[in-house]
Amino acid sequence: MIQTSTLGFLKKLKKNNDKSWFDAHRDDYEAAKKDMEAFTQAVLDRFGAKEPDIRDLTAKNCLFRINRDVRFSKNKAPYKTNLAASMGRGGKKSIFAGYYIHIEPGSSFVGGGIWMPMAPELKKIRQEIDYCFEEFDQLITGKKFKSVYKGLDREEGFSLSKVPQGFDKDNPAAEYLKLKSWIASRELSEAEVSSPKFLKQTVDAFEALQPLVQFINMSLE
C-alpha cells in the first residue's frame, strides 16, 4: 500500500510547484520517495518470482526522478506531481516492454506494455502481430486480461490514421498494426492505492498483462 501521507504530499506539491516550497518540504518528499521505493521493491520481490525479466531489478533501477525536464516545454513547473516506476528488462530505460506504476491523486494507474518504440522496434512488433495475429488477439481478448483491462489504450496520438506501409488495408490485424504504442492500464482510486490489498492488486494486474509483454518482447528478440 501507499501511505496516505504520500498522497497528501503530492496533492500539496500540485498546488505549490516551485523550488522554494519543495526545499522547505524536502523531508516530506524524502518520506514519500521512500514509501514509493518500498512499495516498488515489494512488487519486484513478489512478481519477480514469476517474471524473469524483472527478477534482478531493484526499486532504484525503476523509479523516475521527480524533477521535470523543462528545457523544451512551455510548462516550466520544476516537479512532476506523481511518483512512478517502470519495471522492464534492464530497468526504466529499457527498450523492451514492461510494467508500470503511476501514483498521482486522482490519476493513479497500473499497467504496462511498450510506449512509442523507435522505428526498428516498431516494425518488428507490427510484423509479429501480423504473423501471429490469432495468438495476439487471444492475449487481449482473453478472460484474464479482460478481467483487469478494458483493452489496449487508444489515446490521441497512439494510432496512425491508415494501415502502415507494407500491410494490406484489409488485414484482420489492421487496427492493431496502426498503433504506435501497445499499452494497457487500469485506473485506481485513492482508496485502492492506500489499501492493504494494493500490493496483491498490482501483482494480479501485472500477471494479467504478462503474456502481452512477453509477446512484444519475443518480437524484439
From TrEMBL:
Among Pfam families, the record links this protein to: DUF2461
Query: Which InterPro entries does this entry report, sorted A to Z?
Result: CHP02453, UCP028451
Give the protein's recorded name.
Answer: DUF2461 domain-containing protein
